[in-house]
Known about the structure:
Largest sheet: 4 strands, mixed
CATH superfamily of the largest domain: Butyryl-CoA Dehydrogenase, subunit A, domain 3
Mean pLDDT: 93
Order of helices and strands: HHHHHHHEEEEEEEEHEEHHHHH
Number of domains: 3
Number of strands: 10
Helix content: 40-55%
Shape: globular
Structural class: alpha+beta
Strand order of the largest sheet: 1-4-5-8
Distance between the termini: 25 Å
CATH topology of the largest domain: Butyryl-CoA Dehydrogenase, subunit A, domain 3
Number of helices: 13
Radius of gyration: 21 Å
Oligomer: single chain
Amino acid sequence: xxxxxxxxxxxxxxxxxxxxxxxxxxxxxxxxxxxxxxxxxxxxxxxxxxxxxxxxxxxxxxxxxxxxxxxxxxxxxxxxxxxxxxxxxxxxxxxxxxxxxxxxxxxxxxxxxxxxxxxxxxxxxxxxxxxxxxxxxxxxxxxxxxxxxxxxxxxxxxxxxxxxxxxxxxxxxxxxxxxxxxxxxxxxxxxxxxxxxxxxxxxxxxxxxxxxxxxxxxxxxxxxxxxxxxxxxxxxxxxxxxxxxxxxxxxxxxxxxxxxxxxxxxxxxxxxxxxxxxxxxxxxxxxxxxxxxxxxxxxxxxxxxxxxxxxxxxxxxxxxxxxxxxxxxxxxxxxxxxxxxxxxxxxxxxxxxxxxxxxxxxxxxxxxxxxxxxxxxxxxxxxx
Length: 384
């Protein structure tokens, strides 16, 4: 019999995070989201709650074995209070899953600091000329006697402006596509590194920026994983993160629908609460349905990951559709609020701008559809 129930441990953790999201995150979300300062004080509280170590080695303060469903629950629940901070466990999980393949010195230096919420590390893959086509990156790692010299530019990098280091993906001179791409740990205060902010219309605290490297020396011990295998390693973990990001957007949208429902019960026109009119109640019903459907798509992808079963296609479905569903639900909530929904004094417009980023960030809907269609077209025909 199919079960859609979370286990007791997951439910207890979700309840703890829900209380934190409502009491600690939600009241000051709008103020934090309007600032380019990274909220390290709240970030450290997430570390104390154990949110930043999900699925990471226990010896460095993590929870141990990979737990995709728990990561999804954490991001969805936290996003109800602050969609920007809710991305932290996904970002750290993606980065730390690479760092565990580094030297003992690298692991001991960075993993505890990240899991405790004391420090951030960026993941630098996207380039000006290679967005969705990540394997077309042009940053070069030229080998020298004691390591490599890296030259190139990375753009739209999350945490670039608040991180102490970055995982930089660069290729061997003369290589092409995914072959010859390696992962290197680069200190962002190293000679030859220039970090420039590039704030967008939302997600300001995430510190988006560009990282320019001019003959930056990377020592041999800062190679992460196998030489020439960096691209394949990170792509595997994007399957993990995409569904969690979908849930994150849905968590933010659920907060907006709840606010719209409260407002619809309180606001009156012609002597009746506006929630009694189908023009208000039906959109709420429709978007609640879409949120629920998109939510279980994401958890299905994460469950398949936990079971060790193929999930690339569902992960891509979870990345392109749920952010669209979330964006549309927040827009509907803004309309129900009328002019107040557009006001900068309310969180609705801020969530709309923050969630909009995930229609593009970490893989556009078009690249996700390409992945899905490739699997569909590659199936053998089945006779019925």
